[in-house]
Fold:
Amino acid sequence: MYLAERTSLRLSTLCALYVAQGLPFGFVTVALAAYLSNRGANLQVIGDLIAYSILPWSFKWMWGPVIDWLQVPGLGRRRPWIILAQSLMLVTIGWMILTDAEQSFTSLKRLVLLLNVFASLQDVAVDALAVDLLPEHERGKANGLMYASSYFGTAIGGGGLGWLMGRTGFSVALVALAFLLLLILLFPILLRERPGDRWCVPAWRSAWQAESSATRRPSGMTLLRNLWKAFSVPASLVAALLALTVNLGQGLLQAVYTVHFTQELQWSQEKFSAATGGYAVLLGLAASVAGGFLADRFGAKLIASFASLALGILWVCFGEISSLWHVDAIIYALIYGQEILLALLTVSLFSMFLTVAWPQVAATQFTAYMSLMNLSRVFGSKSASAMSELLTCQEMFMLMGGVQMGLICIIYSLDVTQTRRVLGPESA
Structure:
């Protein structure tokens, strides 16, 4: 069966592969973080764990040129990379089990880093597959379903496997994660991209000849020159500044409240994972779908401004009522409210950054913005321990709430159409 010939097969495969990306992310940032915190891990350990899981996603743009240029003829342009990346994810999980990584945080964080390196590789390869195979009239629907599938994977990895880890332990949860990834790996193994592709034996000579005669890629210097032109426009730099700051609060506060809720408020592994990795992520999934429609209806800039302002107010108000943190309903309101607002903010920013990007280098420029957003979260997570020595938990909520509200100044100063007005729709 060929993905290029069947719409339902294309969409189901892409969605399954996006679930595979969400699984390890939810497992590490929600389930594993809560598991370690319940066993006495301090804020620096939790912050480092989250930072190490996000860091490879900050540099995933580096995979694009590799995937475009290094291909296995006859097996499909993207399929070999997807199979390789997900297989290496499974190998890393096996390594975690066999080396008992739970007993050494140094080993654990290195393996978490490695796991997310391969997950980010798979992400770029799957995005490239979507660009190759999706006709224009399918892209809007497919993007919504794929983004929702990533959320669904995060819910399973964080909520479902978090509950399992609390009941059975670290190794059993890892085996379950590996089993789920192995099931999803069957999609790229059993399916092929286009008629003429083979399952496992490349057709080197004919494929290379077809590639050389049918494809003419721009030179590296041309790409660099166009990127320089794109980022010379002020709007592109303002967008980069926004991407680099927008997730600071999310990264810092996730580490802070993971430790505070599980250690100070004595939330169990199962309770925390169900709240932050299960129901909250499902609400975020629904909000992300709604956010796309709202951005189209009212404008991405307005929705991003509203979400950032509301998120900042939520954090400030939560910090102000620290005396009520022992009430579960207050905690649930924070967790669910911020997940909804973060989803609205993220989806609207995606739309803004796509508009800012110059079409000639849109894929590379947009991926750069996504990487900066991930790097922003890394900076926040890594600074959590140092900030905790200067401020209390409630003060950190109030500080980051103020920063988040202040971002609407950057959002409103961003002229999303400037790049195309200045440079035109195509390169010179």
In short: Confidence is low (pLDDT under 50) at residues 204-216. The two ends are 41 Å apart (CA to CA). The chain has 18 helices and no strands. Residues 224-419 form a domain with the Growth Hormone; Chain: A; fold (CATH 1.20.1250.20).
